[in-house]
TrEMBL record:
It comes from Cellulomonas uda. Signal peptide: none annotated. This is Cadmium transporter. Keywords: Membrane, Transmembrane, Transmembrane helix. InterPro entries: Cd-R_transporter (IPR004676). The keyword Membrane applies. The chain crosses the membrane at residues 6-29, 41-65, 71-88, 108-129, 135-157, 177-197. The lineage of its organism: Bacteria, Bacillati, Actinomycetota, Actinomycetes, Micrococcales. The keyword Transport does not apply.
Amino acid sequence: MIVSSVLQAIGLFVATNIDDIIVLSLFFARGAGQRGTTARITAGQYLGFAGILGTAVLVSLGAGAFLPEEAIPYFGLIPLALGLWAAWRAWRGSDDDDDDAKVEGKNVGVLTVAAVTFANGGDNIGVYVPVFLNVGPVAVVAYCVVFLLLVAILVMLAKFIATRRPIAEVLERWEHVLFPIVLIGLGIVILVSGGAFGL
């Protein structure tokens, strides 16, 4: 039964987190050349994902008052706001973009990564809750352990993608455009697919 739960957990994680590779790769591109980027992205991803798992477990335990299901789509406002802020900064600083700035990269904060990860996890919560409701407590623990182990693999895979020379060059050249577009798009998708604001 545990083996079956582990295999199901792997499949569920891949299905619900494949989109995170793109976002994390952009975070790695944004923080290229900055000391501690990998540690900050990893910590942020774990913090955000722990929030997703904690919420899913609480909701599945009947803590609907803690986070009503209708509130989940509004987490799309987080990446939307971060994307609009990044777009405004890119537009405002486009004239003074020099080689030194490219080499230095930009700091990627733990809380920014965590916020985007959590906001992007609305669909994860929506998928995990019914699964957790239909398995026993031991299986829920197995799912959570497997998910947390796979987060590290997800981060390393995103770093691998972002550091391949052809991909890294494209990301470095277009990161200031792609980063806000992906975040804004992510926010809109979360809001629309969840029916926020009656959309």
